[in-house]
Automatic annotation (TrEMBL):
InterPro entries in the record: Cys_Synth/Cystath_Beta-Synth, SbnA, TrpB-like_PALP, TrpB-like_PALP_sf
A GO BP entry: alpha-amino acid metabolic process
Gene that this sequence comes from: sbnA
Keyword field: Pyridoxal phosphate, Transferase
Protein name: 2,3-diaminopropionate biosynthesis protein SbnA
NCBIfam families with a match to the protein in the record: PLP_SbnA_fam (TIGR03945)
Feature: compositional bias, Basic and acidic residues: 326-341
Any GO MF annotation of the entry: transferase activity
Binding partners and assembly: Homodimer.
Length: 341
């Protein structure tokens, strides 16, 4: 029984879900949402803060500032509250409301940028704002998840080893890409392992992380509107790009079986099952990484109006729907015509 006194001291790293009963292909999903920050970003936040403290960059009067689509912001909010630092998160309008409220509940300030950068994303605008803050006051400390080696090192030291321990005959690992911290930490670890592991990066259509055309992306976490500075493609065997509509269908398919995961998990699982369907998967040991859980996405991915406004009425078959209908007026609701179990 673990007993902790700091919230970042607990992180369940041993949980895998066997997705074969849902998708009919051999795939294990490593769940990274079971900690007090609710996501994989706790690992990167822990490592980056600890090394900034060791290097004397973080001092008692420092103000942490970071650009984040949400999850790193929550993790840093939690650590900052626990250690007594101030924290300002710079995010954008795609950040879920619940994620913003979480950061504020933990005592952080949140700044939301609204102007897109030249790639149609918000990253450039967010980073520019962080830079201007740091130039204006020397107490600001920017850990910079996009360039900080602590981001990938966290996964080299923890995520990759947890997978290796449970799956000594691992053949293929599917990893979603945002900053590429998870991808690079795991890829570097398995490059030195006792057997070759195929590293498959999963990105969303519209992201320019691996090149390609920028496009609209509404699901936070995965994808970048620039090339991730941490990315070294020589460690990546393959890249799969997933449409957001597929991400959503996959999330709902898992939710119908009781597993409520976040958007990027839908992307990674969708890419992985598509890859496995193209290969003779019978004897393959495959693992995918689920960065967070679904509760932060109840008003987006799991909300019918949001889905239909953005992706059209046909986004889900009626029997795939797990979302509830939010009516704008107080008019009585249509009876539920979905097939009942
Ligand atoms: C929900 C979610 N999925 C995936 C990622 C991508 O992870 P990484 O930044 O390590 O590439 C993030 C990063 O913020 C995330 O919040």
């Amino acid at each position: 029984m673990p007993v902790i006194s700091a919230p970042h001291d607990f992180n369940e790293g041993r949980l895998f879900v066997d997705l074969e009963p849902i998708f009919g292909c051999p795939l294990y999903l490593k769940c990274e949402g079971f900690n007090f920050a609710g996501s994989i970003k706790l690992k990167a936040a822990n490592e980056m803060v600890a090394s900034a403290e060791r290097d004397g960059i973080l001092k008692p009067d420092s103000i942490l500032v970071e650009s984040s689509s949400g999850n790193l912001g929550v993790a840093l909010s939690m650590i900052a509250a626990s250690k007594g630092y101030e924290f300002l998160c710079v995010t954008d309008s795609r950040c879920n409301l619940s994620t913003r409220l979480l950061m504020e509940a933990l005592g952080s300030r949140v700044h939301i940028v609204a102007d897109p950068d030249e790639n149609g994303g918000f990253l450039g605008t967010r980073v520019e704002y962080v830079r201007s803050l740091c130039a204006s006051d020397s107490r600001y400390v920017w850990l910079s998840q996009y360039t900080n080696p602590g981001n990938w090192r966290a996964h080299y030291r923890t995520t990759a080893q947890q997978i290796a321990r449970h799956f000594p005959s691992l053949d293929v690992l599917f990893i979603g890409t945002g900053t590429a911290g998870t991808l690079m930490g795991c890829a570097r670890y398995f490059r030195q392992w006792h057997r070759p592991v195929r590293i498959v990066a999963v990105d969303s259509v519209g992201s320019v992380a691996f090149g390609g055309e920028p496009g609209r992306r509404m699901i936070p976490g995965l994808g970048m509107s620039m090339r991730p500075p941490l990315l070294d493609e020589s460690y990546v065997n393959e890249v799969i790009r997933v449409e957001e509509a597929e991400t959503i269908r996959t999330c709902h398919r898992m939710a119908r079986r009781g597993f409520l995961f976040g958007g990027s998990t839908g992307t990674v699982v969708s890419g992985a099952t598509e890859w496995l369907s193209r290969h003779d998967a019978q004897d393959i040991t495959a693992v995918a990484i689920a960065p967070d859980l679904g509760e932060r996405y109840l008003d987006t991915i799991y909300q019918t109006n949001w889905l239909q406004d953005l992706y059209g009425d046909q986004i889900l078959d009626p029997d795939e729907m797990t979302a509830t209908v939010r009516t704008e007026e107080s008019a009585p609701r249509e009876p539920d015509r979905r097939p009942q179990p």
